[in-house]
Write a structure and sequence with these properties.
The chain is mainly α. Helix 1 packs antiparallel against helix 2. The chain has helices spanning about 5-80, 85-170, 175-185, 210-215, 240-250; strands spanning about 190-195, 200, 230. A hairpin with a 2-residue loop joins strand 1 (about 190-195) and strand 2 (about 200).
Amino acid sequence: MHPDLKAVIELQQVDLRIGELTTQIDALPTQIQALQAQLNDFIHAHEERKKRLAANQKERKDLEGEIKVIQEKIAKHKDQLYQVKTNEQYRAMLKEIAGEEANIRKIEDQLLEKMIEAEDIQKHIQDAASRLEGEKARVVGEVERLQSERQADVEERDRLEARRQELQAALDESVRKLYERMRVIRQGMAVAEVRDGLCTACNVRLRPQVYNEARTNEALLTCDNCDRILYYVEPPPEGEQAGDQSAKTAV
């Protein structure tokens, strides 16, 4: 294989991997923020339930206060029953007492609803409280894992950056410029495999002469359509292909 061709093939693999690593490294802050946001949302929901429970307790206390006031009014009205002068006043007083008792029943229904609500909120609070430390530990563990992976990615990228410099230094200057130009134009894909007479990058059929030359890998050729640098990979023998297919079928 032509030495420059071998170098640009590896160089593209290195560049693609560097790109993947850079994407992973750059994504870390967002991933950590997402984890922290999850924890913050969990804590916020927990605190909101506590506030709701406190509000519920106040509402129940207020309702109980309303009932007490009405009960005092009823007691007062009952005492006044013995002081009324006419049957009409007596019936009016009884009607008023009945109305106040109906109000008490309505408030008691509201109070029961508040009590049921309080039980449900309390259950959620207890559940969240038991999970809170676990959630904190999970987030800390995930952050540590991501930071460890980032460090490994940075180290691998540094190693590949050093290898990239070695490969670039070994290239003829004209080849290096061609590779870099195509890498920019073709969004990182400056080199393309030739297969079945086609450039696999743009799927355009090569001229027979170019295809035959590309199959030797002894010359630095470019696709007439997309200008990518071409290389050829010898397919495995037919028997091996059949064996691989049989193994896949067996699996």
